[in-house]
Structure formats: C-alpha cells, structure tokens
Design goal:
It is built from eleven helices and eleven strands. The protein is α+β, with helices and mostly antiparallel strands and about 300 residues long.
C-alpha cells in the first residue's frame, strides 16, 4: 500500500458534506467553529471568493480545496458593490443548499462545505501536522477534477437514495488528492505528504513503511543520497518539521492504531513502534496526545474493524 493510502486508512476518515453554497456577489457567510475532533473543508467548484480566518484573508478561485485542521470560526466573502447579504452555516445541519442568488446571477460561486471526522487518534495527529489552513489548487482542465465536480453537482441537485454515501466518498477522495498535491497555494506552507523533493520523499516513505526501525540521520541521509547536513536542511524545508519530530509523530500514529487491539500489551505496542522500554514510550505518548497509553486505550481507542 502506498504511504498516503496507508495514512488515510490509519486515520479512518469519515467525510460529511454539510452544505452546498450558491452565493451571489456581496455576500458574507459566517461559518461557526466545529468540534475539537472535526476538520472543516471547502471545495470551490466555480467563481471566486475570499476565506477569512481571524485577521487573515485568503483568495480562492475555482478548483481550490481548503482544509482547516483546527476548524476555527471563519467566513466566506464574495466581492461586489451591491448591498451586503449575510448567511450562516451551522455545524450539524442536514445537507442542503444555502442560496443567495439564482444560478444566472453575476458573481455566483458554487462552494461545497463539510468536515472530516477521524475514527482514530492517528487522524487527529495527522491533521496536526498540516498547515492551518491548507489550500491547494486543482487544475480545472484535469479530467478527474471535472468528473468529481460534475458528479457532486448532479448528486446535490437530485439528492436521492445514496447521495450522502456518494458525496462522502468524493469528499474523502478530495482529502486524498489534497494530501498528495505538491503545489500548495500559500507561500511558506508545506504538505509533508506531498513534498516536491523526490529525495526527501524516499526518506519519508521509508519511515512510513517501517516506523519501528531505528532511523539514525545518517541512514535517512543515505536513502536520500545527501550529506547529513544537506539532508537535515532539505527535510525541514520540505516538511516544516524536524526529522525527530516527524518520526515521533508517525510512531505515535501507529501506536494509537495498535492500542485499539486489546490483545496487545502496552509494552508490545512500544516495541512495535520502535521504543526499547515501555516507560520511554509512555512518556513520549503522553507528550504527543496528552494522556497515557492505558488511559487512551480505556477512553478513546476505537475497536478494530469499527
């Protein structure tokens, strides 16, 4: 299995499409915060708008996908000189359409909004490693993107049997495509899942495939065919994190998955993710998740095959 597919499997992603927004010019849509375990997303099929988060603004154009790992309150704004219209998107509402315009009005945008929930703590750890917000642009002339957009519109318009499942699957595909997109729209943001440097990708893939192995810097640098110093510099630039922090995160993602199996002791989980002692694993796990492996297993672990 390729690394990104493995990450999606570990995260146990569930995509929920909340609303389709057909907004006219001069519209502001307020989006309330989601819960701590939810990650909001937007996918702009047509038009242009601005995402506003706190005191920052991000212009969006057709084909842009947005992921907000911490799901803060934010707004979508369309430009125009007409009297301002306002709308509100509330988490938890049944799927439907928010409309402030007819389909022929000037300045209309076609925006799908939803959220991802994760059936494992591994998904939450994955989200924490991504830029907030993460914005990538999909080429509008890409056949896959055109097909997805057309299918999303068709299902949203008809909203018949199976629509929820179909839209959920498409939104999971959008997340997967976002994770593998090597051209984030914002400067100085990195998606380590899609680093553009193939040498760093080789080192990342080696860790993802065997997180329990000892991974001295020299070994990873050799995989990347770089000197030690050059590898460290390029790794941080390509991923936005250090080798040590990245390795720890990947090991903790695997650990949260393994802890869901009651047949495994904490000590055996520690060994399987590369720790020589249960105490060292427990300390690292607590720093990463805010709880101990035993408490996590009792309160948060998801049973296998759930």
């Amino acid at each position: 299995m390729d690394p990104i597919s493995h990450l999606i499997e570990l995260a146990r992603v569930r995509a929920v499409l909340d609303v389709r927004c057909l907004l006219a010019a001069s519209t502001v849509m307020e989006v309330a915060a989601y819960g701590d375990s939810d990650t909001a997303f937007h996918f702009l099929l047509d038009g242009e708008c601005t995402l506003e988060v706190a005191d920052k603004s991000y212009p969006l154009t057709a084909g842009d996908a947005v992921l907000l790992p911490t799901s803060p309150p934010h707004r979508i704004r369309t430009s125009g000189t007409a009297p301002l219209q306002t709308s509100t998107k509330t988490p938890g509402q049944a799927f439907g359409t928010i409309r402030t315009t007819s389909s022929s009005a000037d300045g209309v945008i076609d925006l799908f909004c939803g959220h991802y929930t994760f059936g494992s703590a591994a998904g939450l750890l994955l989200a924490q490693t991504l830029p907030d917000p993460a914005i990538v642009s999909f080429a509008q002339d890409d056949e896959t993107v055109r097909t997805m957009c057309g299918l999303m519109r068709h299902e949203a318009n008809h909203n018949g049997p199976g629509t929820t499942a179909i839209l959920s699957s498409i939104c999971t595909a959008i997340l997967t495509m976002l994770l593998r997109n090597s051209t984030p729209k914002l400067p100085d943001t990195t998606l380590w899942t899609a680093t553009a440097d193939p040498r760093i990708s080789q080192a990342i893939n080696a860790i993802l495939q065997a997180p329990a192995k000892p991974w001295p810097i020299e070994k990873l640098a050799a995989i990347a065919t770089m000197s030690r110093a050059t590898f460290l510099r390029h790794f941080t630039k390509s991923t936005g994190t250090t080798v040590g922090a990245f390795l720890t995160t990947i090991r903790m993602m695997h650990a949260t998955d393994l802890l869901a199996d009651p047949a495994l002791t904490v000590a055996s989980v520690a060994t399987r993710v590369g720790y020589a002692s249960e105490s060292a694993f427990t300390q690292t796990f607590h720093l990463a998740t805010g709880t101990t492996p035993g408490r996590f297993r009792r309160t948060r672990a998801v049973p296998p095959n759930s």
